[in-house]
Write a structure and sequence with these properties.
The protein is mainly alpha-helical and about 150 residues long. It has one domain. The protein has helices at about 5-30, 40-70, 75-95, 105-125, 125-135, 140-149. The two termini are about 35 Å apart.
Length: about 150
């Protein structure tokens, strides 16, 4: 893959993820969304079943993910969180008894976030190794573990 593309693509995809998550959070705020309008992503679903604490909690995770994915050192962690959130959104839409309540808009956006997060995660996978090495400084690397077996 071209080096410029490998450097620039994660940022373009990260901006897409941030826009979707921030719009999702904003669309669920009281007074911003129309009373009959369903928020873009999971916030609406969790908010309906989990009440305001569920809605608030998912909104915080979405905002944290949006922040992590634009910070260069934490982009892989943000992509991992975005992948987990998008997986949850897709599963809720697929297995919900009522199905998607927004004519598939949230489902389509979640699939886009899932794919974008997966690409960012693959391109930034080395960052996760740094996180795990810092978390367990004395742990042998994967290549060292296989040499002893």
């Amino acid at each position: 893959m071209d080096n410029n593309l490998q450097r620039g693509l994660p940022w373009v995809l990260a901006v897409y993820i941030v826009v979707v998550f921030v719009l999702s959070v904003l669309s669920s705020l009281p007074g911003v969304a129309d009373p009959g309008r369903v928020p873009l992503l999971l916030i609406g679903t969790v908010g309906q079943s989990g009440g305001m604490p569920g809605q608030f909690g998912v909104g915080l995770v979405e905002l944290a993910t949006a922040i992590l994915i634009v910070v260069p050192r934490t982009q892989a962690v943000g992509a991992l969180l975005a992948l987990a959130l998008a997986t949850g959104i897709v599963l809720v839409d697929v297995f919900s008894a009522a199905g998607p309540s927004d004519d598939g808009l949230g489902f389509g956006l979640a699939c886009g976030v899932w794919a974008a997060a997966l690409v960012v995660l693959v391109l930034r996978r080395r960052q996760l190794g740094v996180v795990t090495r810092r978390a367990a400084p004395g742990a042998p690397r994967v290549s060292q573990r296989h040499e002893h077996e």
